[in-house]
């Protein structure tokens, strides 16, 4: 079966798009080939790795990727922007059948104590997870796992 390629786009590819990539792979990996990239990639935020690890998703092999690595080289059926800047900057991809915008707060922008920062990363992770689960359900796709 040919899987639809999905890419999550964000500015830095350090938090939200990385979480979304890992979560869609977990819940919909049998239906989609999943990627993520940024317009101005930054190293993956350490708290991204921490909160995903807490959720049982190991991301130590993930790296930040520049959108330029994919432009003109890979066809995506679905593009999902997860921040307003990515939505504004997103170029037109030829042949994309679906383009979605799922805005989430940038957890890396939260200042405050370590606990406040971790709480924001967890909140965003949970929001992304809920959005992905409901999106898969809308599409009539069963989840790979039920946890």
Q: What is the fold named in CATH at topology level?
A: Rossmann fold
Report the major sheet.
Answer: 4 strands, parallel
Radius of gyration: 14 Å
**CATH architecture group name:** 3-Layer(aba) Sandwich
Walk across the major sheet and give the strand order: 2-1-3-4
The CATH homologous superfamily corresponds to Response regulator
Mean pLDDT: 89
Number of domains: 1
What's the helix-strand series? EHEHEHEH
CATH class: Alpha Beta
Q: Which class of secondary structure composition applies to the elements?
A: alpha/beta
Count of runs of 4 or more consecutive helical residues: 4
* Termini gap: 25 Å
Overall body shape:
globular
SS elements, strand count: 4
Structural commentary:
36% of the residues lie in helices and 15% in strands. With 147 residues, it is α/β, with parallel strands linked by helices. The chain has one domain: Response regulator (Rossmann fold), CATH 3.40.50. Strand 1 (4-10), helix 1 and strand 2 (32-38) form a beta-alpha-beta unit. It is globular and about 45 Å long. It starts with a strand and ends in a 9-residue tail after the last helix. The mean pLDDT is 89.
Give a brief description.
The protein has helices at 16-28, 46-54, 84-89, 114-138, and strands spanning 4-10, 32-38, 78-81, 98-101.
Structural descriptors:
4-stranded parallel beta sheet, Rossmann fold, alpha/beta, 4 helices, 4 strands, 147 residues
Give the SSE layout.
Blueprint: E1 4-10, H1 16-28, E2 32-38, H2 46-54, E3 78-81, H3 84-89, E4 98-101, H4 114-138
Parallel strand pairs: 1-2, 1-3, 3-4
């Amino acid at each position: 079966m040919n899987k639809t390629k999905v890419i999550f786009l964000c500015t830095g590819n350090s938090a939200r798009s990385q979480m979304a990539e890992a979560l869609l792979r977990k819940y919909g990996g049998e239906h989609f080939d999943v990627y993520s990239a940024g317009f101005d990639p930054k190293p993956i935020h350490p708290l991204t790795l921490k909160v995903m690890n807490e959720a049982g998703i190991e991301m130590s092999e993930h790296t930040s990727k520049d959108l330029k690595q994919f432009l003109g080289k890979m066809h995506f059926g679905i593009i999902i922007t997860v921040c307003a800047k990515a939505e504004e900057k997103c170029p037109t991809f030829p042949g994309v059948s679906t383009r979605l915008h799922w805005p989430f707060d940038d957890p890396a922008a939260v200042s405050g104590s370590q606990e406040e920062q971790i709480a924001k990363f967890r909140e965003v992770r949970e929001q992304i997870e809920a959005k992905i689960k409901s999106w898969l359900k809308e599409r009539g796709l069963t989840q790979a796992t039920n946890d």
